[in-house]
Amino acid sequence: MKQQEPILDRSVSKVEVTGAEARHYDFVMNLITGGTYPLFIRRVIRDTRIRPADAILDLGAGTGRNACLMARYLGDQGRIVGLDIGDEMLEQAHRRCRYLSNVTFEKRRVEEPLPYRETFDQVFISFVLHGFVQEDRLRIVGNAYRALRPGGRFLILDYNEFEPERAFWPVRFAFRHVECPLATDFVQRDWQAILQEEGLSNFRAHDYYLGYVRLLEAEKQRGV
Q1: What is the DSSP secondary structure assignment for residue 198, as one 8-state letter?
Q2: Total structural domains in the chain?
Q3: Residues contacting 159, CB < 8 A, separation 6+
Q4: For residue 4, is it within any domain?
Q5: Is 152 within a domain?
Q6: What are the residues facing 26 on neighbouring strands?
C-alpha cells in the first residue's frame, strides 16, 4: 500500500506555542538540547555581528530570551522591536526585558502585512520559519525585505538543508515524532535560491549542532 503523503497546510503547524508549553518554553529548549542551548544562542547572537547603533526586528520573539542577549551589543542609539502573537510568550518577554528601555514588544502575526518600511538594519527570526506553510514563509520573507534598510541583513536561525530520513538518529526521531511535516518540507528547500528570488543576496552561513542548524544571513542590496 502506498504511504499517504503528509498534509502540508496550516492545520499541522506547531509554530504557535501556548499554555504550559509556552510558560516553560525556555526550560524545554534547554532540556531537548542537553543543556547546551544557552551557550549555543550566545554564540549565534555573537555571529550576527550586531553593531551598537543597529535597529533590530525580532520576528517571533517568544520569551524575549534572544532580544535580551542582542541588547547587550547595542549602544544608546540601538533598539530592538520584538513581535509575537502568544500572550504567554509576550508576558514573559515583557518581564524579562523590563529593565531595557531600548527593547519593546508588539503583538503581531509575522506572516501578515507589517507596517515597517526600510526601518531596520537587521531582521532576525529564530526557529519560526520552518513552522509555516511555504506561502506564509514567503510572506514573512517579504515582510523582512520591506522592513530592512538598503544594506540591511535578514538573519534566519533554523534547520539547515538535509534529508531527515538520512539524518543522525535523534534528528530522525525528532522529525518523525516531534516536528510537524512542515519542518521536513522546510529542510528540503533551497533557501538561498528562494531568498535570492525575493531580492536578497550576499549570503553568509554559520552551522551548528553537526550542521543540522544554520544561521543564514542575506543582505538587501543598496539602491534596490
Answers
A1: T
A2: 1
A3: 130, 183, 186, 187, 212, 213, 214
A4: no
A5: yes
A6: none
3-state secondary structure 109-123: CCCCCCCCCCCEEEE
pTM given for the model: 0.93
CA distance 151 to 200: 10
Say which DSSP state 63 is in. T
Instruction: Please report whether residue 174 resides in a domain.
Output: yes
pLDDT tens series, the chain, 224 aa: 344 456 678 888 878 887 888 887 888 888 888 899 999 999 999 999 999 999 999 999 999 999 999 999 999 999 999 999 999 999 999 999 999 999 999 999 999 999 999 999 999 999 999 999 999 999 999 999 999 999 999 999 999 999 999 999 999 999 998 888 999 999 999 999 999 999 999 999 999 999 999 999 999 987 65
Please state, in angstroms and rounded to a whole number, the distance separating the CA atoms of residues 224 and 202.
14
The answer as to whether 1 is a domain residue is: no
Per the rule left: phi > 0, alpha: psi between -120 and 50, beta: everything else, 134 is: alpha
Domain span at 185:
14-219
19: left (phi over 0), alpha (psi -120 to 50) or beta: left
Q: Which residues contact 161 (CB under 8 A, 6 or more apart)?
A: 187, 188, 189, 190, 191, 214
Given a contact cutoff of 8 angstroms between Cβ atoms, the answer to whether 47 and 206 are in contact is: yes
